[in-house]
Amino acid sequence: MIEPNRKGEVWVFAEQEDESLNDVSLELCTKARELADRLGVQMGAVLAGWNVRELSYRLIAHGADRVYHVHDTRLEHYRTMPYARVMCQLITRHRPQIVLYGATPLGRDLAPRIASEMRAGLTADCTDLDLGDYEDKRAKTTHHNLLLQIRPAFGGNIIATIINPDRWPQMATVREGVMRMGEGDARRSGEIIDEKIAFDDFDLAVKLIERHREQRKVNLKGARVIVAGGGGVGSKDNFKLVHELAGALGGAVGASRAAVDGGFIGKEHQIGQTGTTVRPALYVACGISGAVQHRAGMEESAKIIAINWDKDAPIFSVAHYGIVGDIGKVIPMMIEAIRERGTTD
Amino acid sequence: MGYDCVVCVKQVPDTANITGDAMKEDGTVNRAALPTVFNPEDLHALEAALDIRERFGGTVTVITMGPPAACEILRDCLFRGADRAVLVTDRRAAASDTLATSYILSQAVRHLEKFDFVFCGRQAIDGDTAQVGPQLAEKLGLPQITYFEQLIDLDARSARIRRNVGNGWEILETRLPVLITVLDTANEPRPPAARRIMRYKRAQAPVELSKAVADELPDAADAQREEETTRRVKALRAADLAIEQWDLDDIKADLQWCGLNGSPTKVYRIQSIVLTKEGHTEIPATKDGVRRMIHELIVDHTLG
Q: Are residues B7 and B156 in the same domain?
């Protein structure tokens, strides 16, 4: 743990794989930049790997004032313990006040290990971050400008705001796709600081034997918005409407088993118990009746819109917004309403 | 030969079936009002351990930290094949966040004589944080392998494990002991065995026995009740049916790192999401209706 340090920087752990940055790291840079400006401090990114120095410029373009760069063959592919060693040593050395990680499989493996070693607080899967004051009534003190770590909890039934008043750094993992990614400004300047990290035998006790990566064809897990169609869509041709609505919302396309079995779309789009389980910020169910197997894969979505001609369809029981109607009419209306918003903003 | 496996399990509120009075006035979760279940991924952790014992020999010990009611899932573990069950229960452990929880569990695991594997479910459905596994590994000074899918190879000193990393997989080689978190795609948990249910349905922890004695002998003096409880605990131990029960003193936990004191994170605010399971907002299938809905989604930052 480090002592609260008001001058401390706001940091992002820059997640890279095969020399390419994960989008969530740039989303976090955008957010961290905003938080750093509000706090009047600098923003830093930690970039570890082998031959990835070039990526520093993208981090700087997206808001980093400093990139702490660690170049080491032993960091070529992610392994928990050496990466945790990098972060713990750099946190101890530079004492940032906030450290953000993507809530990816990697970030969720790494961040808790660091939090435990630093004996610092960590909030998982945040969907929003803010700053705020906290009055500790027992200690009769007020903590100013703490990181407010906002996340759904309890199966998505509540929204909890978590703080970490005195055992710093304040750390959070943030869901992919929930923060806006800035456009980046290639003219921004920043400093690249080359750091050396010492590893011991224990850090290197786990060896990577074999590694296999698949091209992500359909990224349902990471999608902030999913538009899914079911048997009620009727045909492969009608399913184009689902694709169009997804396009207008910048979301991914999902499907129920009935739509997959009907040949409207490929199985890799299937959501539900036998497909992918998703929990996007917005789920639009079009012509999906809502069998329990499908609901199990999507009911934790933050907001659910159900469109179905059958007012008794079970999908309405998990929906926040229900539209009883023909998707052939309702979807075009939605697309129009979304486009209108684009022009009035 | 053989491997000694520890499995950390948790009884959780059934967040998939939340009822109206789930939240208390002060914004904390009203656990008493909720039905509880065996945390789903912990069943897969248990299965991974039972599988190792079957193939290579060894033992399976399950540990849970929680209120006395958590004995229910410990019995479930015994029904499914666990050799030994431990309840870590102490009021001073209440309000522990993931860091304090992992510290307490680490002290409990250290209290066992020997272990080669520590298994946890990847995450629990009440918090979905997936933090306790990696934090417990760090506290125990063990390597961690998260998202376990398959044991590829195992010998006396090391294990090769395939893990799922979302966009692919990798095979890692680790020394033992190691902490592993298990995904629900790793295996198919075996059901409770009828023969074991017959035997272990009577398994109880001392705290359960003492409550039963208090209910049965409401007018007895404290000393008499205590004596009766001690007698029953001894009888269960003799029959090899005792669920072991440890408090923070038994596991030599430093109170500075337990409960509220040991928890760096604090709840600042809780907002209930209006439960719409029964009543969603009906939007008329008109241009105005749809426009209003999109506007609401922008205002609450779902879109934009």
A: yes
Domain identity same for B117 and B7:
yes
Q: Tell me where in chain A the CATH 3.40.50.620 domain(s) lie.
A: 10-204
Find chain B residues with C-beta within 8 A of A155's C-beta.
Answer: 15-16, 18, 125-126, 128
**pLDDT at residue B275 is higher than 50:** no
Asked whether the beta carbons of B7 and B63 are under 8 A apart, the reply is: yes
Among A129-143, A284-298, B13-27, top mean pLDDT goes to: A129-143
Q: Is A120 exposed, middle or buried (0-12, 13-18, 19+ CB in 10 A)?
A: buried
Residues B176 and B303 in one domain: no
pLDDT tens digits, residue range B196-247? 999 999 999 999 999 999 999 999 999 999 999 999 999 999 999 999 999 9
- Cis previous bond, B177, omega within 30: yes
At the top level of CATH, the class of A10-204 is alpha beta
Asked if B171 and A210 come within 8 Å (Cβ–Cβ), the reply is yes
Nearest CB to A134 within list B137, B139, B268: B268
Nearest to B244 by CA among B49, B45, B74, B10: B74
Nearest CA-CA distance, residue A191 and chain B, Å: 32
Nearest to A224 by CA among B301, B289, B122, B275: B301
Distance CA B288, CA B304 (A): 20
Per the CB < 8 A criterion, the answer to whether A79 and A46 are in contact is no
Q: Are residues B184 and B77 in the same domain?
A: yes
Residues near B268 by Cβ (< 8 Å), separated by ≥ 6? Answer: A132, A134, A146, A148, A161, A162, A163
The answer to whether the CB of B85 falls within 8 A of the CB of B244 is: yes
Number of domains within chain B:
2
- Alpha-carbon span B239 to A79, nearest angstrom: 46
Q: Is B261 on the interface with A (CB under 8 A)?
A: no
Question: Topology of A225-344 in CATH?
Answer: Rossmann fold (3.40.50)
Contact A21, A14 (CB under 8 A): yes
Q: What is the least distance, in Å, from the CA of B29 to any CA of chain A?
A: 9
Contact B133, B280 (CB under 8 A): no
pLDDT in tens, A206-256: 999 999 998 766 778 778 899 999 999 999 999 999 999 998 898 899 999
Beta strands of A249-318 (E only): which ranges? 252-255, 282-286, 303-308
